[in-house]
């Protein structure tokens, strides 16, 4: 489309979402509406919408309305946070981009499956050009990114390139996330008041404390209620996520990479691309917002399509005690309960007998593996399981052959090394020799051994992460180098699966998931903690991408004890695995675990293809979550008692997400805790319906519900609802 000065409004629609963009006046695109589907609108109605939404001019402010572009500029009258921050030797600090070309789905035709547009714009005075891509995907997500090019003859120093989306002023509440090792993705709420709420992540990885999702919504929004708008920054390095509300009644959600001082200096002709920003709207609460992300991810060609194999990981089973016989026995026990993939964790290489040394020396340790990994791998594959291996390619112990040979490959600035964390430093993978070395080493392992899966770890923050010599800030380059490394290994080894682990769940974002097949949700596999961590990880990513393991009876990270049913019933909702020294489990525990493994295998299509649902349960002692098949023919719910209830019996639980008019047979799903509520001691009986189950329409189950069995705290019961 040739840009002109006439009004040009574009209305994209998909899956219950409308995105109306104002492309007029050769200015950068402005969002007139992002939210509920407005239905088909005739051109004159679109124009009327635009007029209706146009803010009036106010006194003692810029003359005329101030529409805010997806990349806000001061030249358009916007005095909030600018989208582009940078300068050319102190000048050109503010831009006035003029649109040159718009391509993509730019007719007013209603595009039912969404659409995309690409806007190229220039500011000849500042010597910059900009390409903006804005999409409404078939799942109803908005996805956008910007690329800035220095068209001038001198370097341009870039400090920020942020994109924004407006939300209506009736979005008065914010939800985002914080967290730490063993407690990732803790939700926090705040009023969406005037001013700027900034969530910065400077850890050089996605981070435990990342905003993850920044959601604005109507007062009191919940899992199934309220209008919500959320953004996610698809980036595995430093980033900034903001909610900004001005006294002009403008409310924006925005995000972009957080650039360190001097990190991006664009020489003439060079470009910088921002991370993708993903944004989801829902008319009915967080489940719908999450479902858009889940549909989007599932539609990707690279989305794992094979059934997610039952994993046994050696970490909490043996830690650094790599002993072939012990591991063979563990593999035997793993195969006996039905495991399909055996993953050898940290400790198999170099001098790595603990976490103080050897990291970076990617050679199988002759000390502990005198015949290499083949005897173990043969044993594992002989038992019908795939073999997986732990690596941490971005890191190095100072006490390692690699660090001794190439101290200049360590990221640093000034005359010092960064303080060690877990006794390790970060390898500068933007340095071609370091990149080539690590690529060659991991490639050699993948070539020498039949490795189906890499558990790719990343166990420290990037602190003072500069390129030696000179110490120029390097988190941006490092992040891109890691992507390149993964991409190249996957290109060379088609079918290789990778898990994104970062001391637990420190690297969970949609860009790393473009080249990995699951995330390790948390190092905490205490099932009670996991209920919370998994619930909120699932707010962005579907269950099949979440590594969820059954740990030992006594949780290693909390010293809490849970029965196998609670642990396995928690791990069921994810990519199921086991991280427990099964050679020490009792026959009874092994028999029960075998039943859970069988149930997981049976339910994989439902768990990994269905729609995740979360109840807004009235009783804080309970959580209700589940998965409903896309065609609503089948559903599995978990009713989880996280504490004792103040009510006795606890009253009804409502089952969301079923087809309103279909009739379902609902009954407890074995194996699992028989919810007898301590019957033998206190005369508590089961709810009447649990005998034979009940047959009720979905709308009744969603509104009236059924009586909750009395449950001990830290226990769960599974409920299966099948359409009759
Ligand atoms: C941190 C990971 O999160 C753990 O699962 C384990 O792989 C250790 N690193 C190994 O060092």
CATH architecture of the largest domain: Distorted Sandwich
Q: Label the structural class.
A: alpha+beta
- Distance between termini? 53 Å
- Mind telling me the CATH superfamily name of the largest domain? alpha-galactosidase from lactobacil brevis
What portion of residues belong to β-strands?
Answer: 25-35%
Hetero groups? (2R,3S,4R,5S)-2-(hydroxymethyl)piperidine-3,4,5-triol
Could you tell me the CATH topology label of the largest domain.
Answer: Beta-galactosidase, Chain A, domain 5
Any idea of the CATH class of the largest domain?
Answer: Mainly Beta
Give the strand tally.
40
Supply Rg.
27 Å
Tally of separate domains: 3
Helix content: 10-25%
Could you say which overall geometry the principal axes of the C-alpha atoms support?
Answer: globular
The number of helical segments is 13
Catalogue the unreliable spans: 1-6
Mean of all residue-level pLDDT scores: 95
What topology does this entry show?
Blueprint: E1 9-14, E2 17-22, E3 30-36, H1 43-53, E4 84-87, E5 98-104, E6 115-123, E7 128-136, E8 142-150, E9 156-161, E10 163-167, E11 173-180, E12 183-191, E13 195-201, E14 214-217, E15 228-234, E16 239-245, E17 251-257, E18 264-266, E19 271-273, E20 276-282, H2 286-298, E21 311-313, H3 315-318, H4 324-337, E22 341-344, H5 374-382, E23 386-391, E24 395-397, H6 401-405, E25 424-426, H7 432-448, E26 453-456, E27 466-467, E28 472-473, H8 475-492, E29 497-500, E30 518-520, H9 527-537, E31 546-550, H10 564-571, E32 575-578, H11 587-609, E33 611-614, E34 622-628, E35 634-641, E36 652-653, E37 663-668, H12 679-682, E38 694-697, H13 698-703, E39 706-707, E40 715-723
Parallel strand pairs: 21-22, 21-32, 22-23, 23-26, 26-29, 29-30, 30-31, 31-32
Antiparallel strand pairs: 1-2, 2-3, 4-9, 5-6, 6-7, 7-8, 8-19, 8-20, 9-18, 10-17, 11-12, 11-14, 13-16, 14-15, 15-20, 16-17, 24-25, 27-28, 33-34, 34-35, 35-40, 36-39, 37-38, 37-40
Helix pairs in contact: 4-5, 7-8, 9-10, 10-11
This protein binds (2R,3S,4R,5S)-2-(hydroxymethyl)piperidine-3,4,5-triol.
(2R,3S,4R,5S)-2-(hydroxymethyl)piperidine-3,4,5-triol (DGJ) binds at residues 315, 345-346, 390, 457, 459, 501, 503-504, 520, 523.
């Amino acid at each position: 489309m040739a840009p002109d000065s006439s009004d040009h409004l574009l209305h994209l629609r998909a899956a219950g979402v409308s995105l109306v963009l104002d492309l007029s006046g050769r200015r950068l695109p402005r969002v007139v509406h992002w939210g509920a589907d407005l239905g088909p609108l005739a051109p004159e109605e679109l124009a009327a919408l635009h007029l209706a939404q146009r803010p009036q001019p106010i006194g003692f402010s810029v003359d005329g309305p101030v529409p805010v572009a997806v990349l806000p500029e001061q030249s358009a009258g916007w005095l909030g946070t600018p989208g582009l921050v940078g300068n050319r030797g102190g000048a050109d600090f503010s831009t006035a981009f003029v649109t040159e070309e718009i391509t993509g789905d730019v007719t007013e035709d209603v595009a039912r499956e969404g659409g995309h547009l690409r806007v190229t714009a220039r500011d000849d005075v500042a010597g910059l050009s900009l390409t903006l891509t804005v999409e409404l995907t078939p799942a109803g997500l908005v996805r956008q990114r910007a690329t800035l090019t220095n068209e001038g003859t001198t370097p341009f120093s870039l400090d920020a390139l942020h994109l924004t989306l407006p939300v209506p002023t009736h979005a008065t509440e914010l939800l985002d996330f914080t967290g730490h090792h063993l407690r990732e993705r803790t939700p926090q709420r705040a009023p969406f008041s005037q001013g700027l709420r900034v969530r910065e992540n400077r850890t050089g990885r996605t981070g435990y404390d990342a905003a993850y999702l920044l959601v604005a919504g109507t007062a009191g929004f919940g899992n199934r209620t309220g209008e919500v708008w959320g953004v996610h920054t698809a980036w595995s390095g430093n980033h900034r996520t903001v909610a900004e509300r001005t006294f002009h009644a403008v409310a924006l959600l925005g995000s972009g990479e957080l650039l360190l001082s001097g990190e991006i200096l664009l020489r003439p002709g060079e470009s910088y691309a921002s991370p993708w920003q993903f944004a989801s709207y829902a008319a009915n609460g967080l489940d719908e917002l999450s479902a858009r992300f889940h549909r989007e991810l599932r539609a990707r060609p690279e989305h794992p399509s094979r059934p997610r194999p039952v994993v046994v990981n050696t970490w909490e089973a043996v830690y650094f005690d790599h002993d072939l016989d012990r591991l063979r026995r563990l593999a035997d026990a793993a195969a006996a309960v039905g495991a399909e993939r055996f993953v050898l964790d940290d400790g198999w290489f170099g001098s790595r007998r603990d976490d103080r040394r050897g990291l970076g020396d990617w050679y199988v340790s002759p000390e502990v593996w005198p015949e290499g990994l083949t005897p173990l791998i043969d044993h594992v594959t002989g038992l019908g399981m795939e073999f997986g291996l732990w690596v941490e390619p971005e890191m190095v112990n100072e006490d390692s052959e690699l660090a001794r040979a190439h101290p200049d490959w360590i990221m640093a600035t000034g005359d010092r090394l960064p303080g060690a964390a877990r006794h390790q430093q970060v390898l500068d993978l933007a340095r071609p020799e370091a990149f080539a070395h690590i690529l060659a080493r991991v490639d050699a392992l993948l070539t020498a051994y039949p490795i189906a899966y890499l558990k790719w770890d990343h166990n420290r923050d990037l602190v003072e992460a500069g390129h030696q010599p000179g110490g120029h800030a390097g988190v941006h380059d490092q992040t891109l180098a890691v992507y390149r490394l993964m991409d190249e290994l996957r290109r060379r080894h088609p079918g290789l699966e990778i898990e994104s682990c970062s001391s637990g769940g420190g690297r969970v974002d949609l860009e790393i998931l473009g080249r990995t097949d699951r995330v390790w949700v948390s190092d905490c596999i205490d099932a009670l903690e996991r209920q919370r961590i998994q619930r909120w990880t699932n707010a962005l990513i579907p269950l099949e991408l979440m590594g969820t393991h059954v740990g030992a009876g006594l949780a290693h990270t909390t010293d809490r004890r849970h029965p196998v049913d609670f642990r396995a019933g928690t791990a069921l909702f994810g990519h199921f695995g086991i991280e427990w020294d099964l050679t020490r489990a009792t026959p009874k525990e092994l028999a029960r675990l075998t039943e859970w493994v069988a149930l997981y295998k049976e339910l994989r299509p439902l768990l990994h293809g269905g729609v995740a649902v979360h109840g807004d349960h009235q009783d804080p002692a309970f959580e209700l979550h589940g998965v409903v098949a896309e065609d609503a023919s089948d559903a599995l719910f978990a009713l989880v008692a996280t504490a004792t209830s103040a009510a006795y019996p606890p009253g009804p639980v409502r089952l969301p997400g079923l087809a309103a008019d279909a009739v379902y047979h609902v009954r407890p799903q074995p194996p699992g805790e028989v919810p007898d509520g301590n019957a033998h001691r206190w005369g508590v009986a089961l709810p009447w319906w649990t005998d034979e189950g009940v047959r009720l329409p979905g709308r009744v189950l969603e509104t009236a519900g059924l009586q909750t069995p009395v449950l001990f705290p830290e226990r769960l019961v599974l409920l299966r609802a099948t359409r009759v």
